[in-house]
Amino acid sequence: MNPVTLLPFIVLIGAMFLMTRSAKKKQAAAAQMRNDMQPGTGVRTIGGMYATVKELHDDTVLLEIAPGVHAVYAKNAIGAVLDDAEYNRIVHGDGENALDIDGAVVPDDASSLTGTEAGADEDTSDDAKIDLGKKADADDAEPTDAASDKKSEGKNDGEADAK
Q: How buried is 143 (Cβ within 10 angstroms: 0-12 exposed, 13-18 middle, 19+ buried)?
């Protein structure tokens, strides 16, 4: 056989080898990360829940989701092991990028949307009233489209072409 005809197969096998090798490296790194967990470490599950590791077992981990609330997870469900600074920044809001909880307050009524204060007389607004009713001449109008005339010939409402 000609070596030129074997070249695409060799390249294909080489690409498959490189892809599986990189996937195995990622799996090994994830397994090492999960094995390096210690009690007290902050983690993020693959579902996006943040928790603290309480106990480690062979295939499972006991996580403290909230003070006094514990759940058992499979080790494979741990998506990332976080360092203390990152865990505290995300969960407790410590650090530079803390959330501003005392920021803008959302009112419990719709007065901010309409521009009037709650309980104020609405006749004092400068906005023009919008008439949402039908116009009188629209009631008497009938379709004058030729296609609609052909469609309605010889048929009553609700009747269809039955064969």
A: exposed
